[in-house]
Amino acid sequence: MIIDAHCHAGSGDGFTGPWDTRASLDDYRERCDRAGITHSLLLAAFNSDYARANARIARMVQGDPDRYFAFCFVHAKTDRGHIAEMVHQSIVVDGFVGIKVHRHDAPITREICDAARHHRAPVLYDVSGEVAPVELFATEYPDVDFIIPHLGSFSDDWKAQLGLIDMLERHPNVHTDSAGVRRFDLLEQAVRRAGAHKLLFGSDGPWLHPGVELAKIDALELEPRDHQLVVAGNFLRLTHACRSRSRVRSTGHSRVHSNGRSHVRSSSLAHPSRVHAASAVRDR
Questions:
Q1: Neighbours of 4 (CB within 10 A)
Q2: Residue 37, domain extent
Q3: Averaged pLDDT for residues 87-96
Q4: Residue pair 52/87 in contact by the 8 Å Cβ criterion
Q5: Distance CA 104, CA 14 (A)
Q6: Number of Cβ atoms within 10 Å of the Cβ of 284
Q7: Domain count, the chain
Q8: What strand order describes the sheet that includes 123-126?
Q9: What pTM was estimated for this model as a whole?
């Protein structure tokens, strides 16, 4: 089992670039298949109406539940006052397993962190290089798990990435993903200092090639147990509470614990967690 924990999908309405125009999964799926990536976390493209965008993502997941997970995308400013409702709809009704926020829209707020705490959901927050506030919300919400993608900066701001590594090392609830990280030495440093349990494999697909991004994880030459954590185990652990509630609501789903061990029941819907997490170790 290999989970790409960072992939966008659907259409946007901004037309400033691919990120808010369209994120087609057609080529992405074929690339995942060739690379041995079995499952993906879907995130909406940038949008002016995330409630509608999340609904489209929900339909994608429902159309292929053996393959996809999803996080609820919210806008901290324009969705203010409605975030609890949006998160409830996505997690409780639609079976999403976390929350996505982007600093490009607006900085993260207590309203978002409170919703995450209530649902025991991880928050994937792209800080866009502004890593200092991580110190604040990670401390204020020690019971909420935060995933800071791109090692803190998609634009390759090495100072920001070094700053995030320090926070990964000090805060138990701060994690990161490998999507788009170009400075390989910093990726190595993050694992060496903070541990493999703090890193998730992500590609930032469909715009980045998932096979190329996965090759970076292979190049880390981790021990098999640590490799398994990065490509599947950490994601399963961080989303365990949300996935457990989803399985209780939908009879016939497989049961997987945060340690990756599965207890499969007969099911018409083979949830991605059905695959034993030990299979996350690729033939190398």
A1: 29
A2: 3-280
A3: 97
A4: no
A5: 13
A6: 8
A7: 1
A8: 72-73, 99-102, 123-126, 146-148, 174-177, 199-200
A9: 0.88
